[in-house]
Structures are given as C-alpha cells and as structure tokens.
Amino acid sequence: MRIAIFSDIHGNLEALEAVLASDEMKSADRAVCLGDVIGYGADPSACLARVREKAERVLLGNHESAVAHPGELEYFNGYARTALEWTRAQLSAEDLAYVSSLPFAYREPPDFLFVHSAPRSPADWTYIVGLDTARAELSSFGETLCFVGHSHVPLAVEAPADGTSQLIDFPVRVEPGNRYLVNVGGVGQPRDRDPRAAFALYDTDSRTLSLVRVEYPIERAQEKIIAAGLPPFLATRLAAGR
Ligand code: ZN
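The joint structure predicted for all components is written out below.
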C-alpha cells in the first residue's frame, strides 16, 4: 500500500493540481492532508474542494483555525493576516463550517500519527525545524511514524529504541523498532529554497518513505495573487522557495 501525505497548500491551486496529477500521487492508495489548505494564495475555496475530493482525512492548520476563530489573527504577521482576512471573505458558509470542523490530529496506532504542527501540544502550533525541536516532541507519541507540516521545510528524524535520535536524508528506510518524525514540506509555499511543490509518499511494503518534488506553473499562481490584490511578497516568495 502507498500513502501520500501532503500539507500547506495555502490556496495555491496551480501547485495542488500539479501534485494531484503527479505519477507519485496517482500511485497512492490513500492520501492524508495535514492542513493549511488555505491562506496566502488566491484560490482558497477551489483548493478546499480539491483536497476534500482527494484526501480521506484533512487536519486543522493554524490558517484554518484563524479563519474559524478570527481572534487568533493577532498571532499572524501582517502578510498572513491580510491574506487571511481576504481568504475568509472568499469562503462560502459551507467552506467555513467545514474548516471549523477539522481535527488537530489523526491517529492510526501502532503505525501512524498525523498532525499539522507538532504532536506534544498541537494547539500551540510549534514549528519543528531541526533536531532540537524534533527531540522535544519524540517522547509525546508512540506510533512508528509521526507526520507533520507547518514549517514548509522537509525534515526527517530517526529515533532508535536506545533513546538517541538523528537527522536523516530522504528517502527514509523505516527500520523495525525505530520511530520517525517527518516533516513533509509544503505544496503551495515551499520554504527550503526549492520552489517545487513537496509532499511525502510512504510505501508500506518496501517500508520506504520518499519526498516527492513537483514543478508547477509558478507564474500563473503569482499572477493570481497580484490580481487578487494580495501582498506582492506572497507572489515573489513562491519563485524563491522561501
Ligand atoms: Zn502553513
């Protein structure tokens, strides 16, 4: 069985369609979305519809949470807040009810835990950006694989049973007895200086976890952001992948 895990689409329909059309995504038997389908990009409602068609589970991201609870907007920087206020006005009442209904996490013990930010306290929206932040989370789950998004930077940490842990490269070979904390990167606004859309594909037979990168028409997504009157920085950063 192959399971695709994707996150942080951020209203970028061009990136999302390229990911959905990729051979790797088409090969997946299952798909789980870790949240932040909306915010920043020009197609929030269309992205919600496409993700709902594709993913068997969709989790709450901090951008969905802020749209559902506008009091949280004060925690966002100016670009994000401007985009979220615009986003909220684009969504239908049905879209709003849907994003308000999303859960923080989804567990499938003993193998999988899915969460947008971090497993220890998902509502705190902690960013897992390196070994130190990953180590602080490893004791808070027992599943073999914990998948997160939120930082838009792919990352994999391996934790053997002896209590050690280290960063490892993709593709990850999942060894029996070890646990893994994996950031699957971002579809619609990558921040690892690679502008291609990112998601993860796990093959349960070969126990191999791959990071997939997909090119998409960035200029089209940029044009839509400008045409919508959103902050131009949200367009330029897509080409830089940061
Ligand atoms: Zn995000």
